[in-house]
Amino acid sequence: MAARGTDRPGFGGPAIVPTVWQLLKLAQDGKRPGGETTTYPEAMAGLGIGWESKAASARRRRERDAAVAREVLTLTCEKCGATDGEQCKTKSGWATDKAHVGRQRQAEGNVDVRLGYLGEMPVPVPSTL
Fold first, then answer.
1. Distance of CA 31 to the CA centre of its chain
2. Could you write out the three-class secondary structure of the chain?
3. Whole-model pTM?
4. Is 35:29 a contact under the CB 8 Å cutoff?
5. Which of 17, 36, 51, 69 has the most CB atoms lying inside 10 A of its own CB?
6. Burial of 35 (0-12, 13-18, 19+ CB in 10 A)
7. Is the pLDDT of residue 41 over 90?
8. Are 121 and 49 contacting, i.e. CB atoms less than 8 angstroms apart?
9. Contact residues for 102 (Cβ-Cβ < 8 A; gap 6+)
10. CA atoms of 7 and 2, how far apart (whole Å)
C-alpha cells in the first residue's frame, strides 16, 4: 500500500495484483531444473502502467473532477462572458448547472497538463501552455 503524498513511480508504481494462475505459473517455472527464476518485481517491470484497482481509479477520477471544477471558475467563458469565480450564464442571465463546453474543455486540458496525464491513465502530456 502506497503512503499518502509519496511519488507513485518512486514508491513502486501502480498496484499490479497477479492472478492465482500467474502465481502458479511462476512457481511451476521455478521448479523446472535449469529454468531461470525471477522475482515478482522483476517479472512485472516490463508491464509498465496499465493496471490499477477500481478504488484507486475512482479516487483519481474524483480528484481530477474536483480540480477541473475549481479550474473552470478561474477561466473566463468566451460564450457568456463569465469571469473569475462566476458560473456560466444562460442567454437570459440565469446561472447554468454546467459550464459551457469551451470553458469546460479548456479547464480539462489545463488540469490534465498540470497533473501530467490525459484521460483515465497517466501518460506523458507535452506542455502546450
1. 39
2. CCCCCCCHHHHCCCCCCCCHHHHHHHHHHHHCCCCCCCCHHHHHHHHCCCCCCHHHHHHHHHHHHHHHHHHHCCCCCCCCCCCCCCCCECCCCCECCCCCHHHHHHHHHHHHHHHCCECCECCCCCCCC
3. 0.54
4. yes
5. 51
6. exposed
7. no
8. yes
9. 77, 78, 79
10. 9
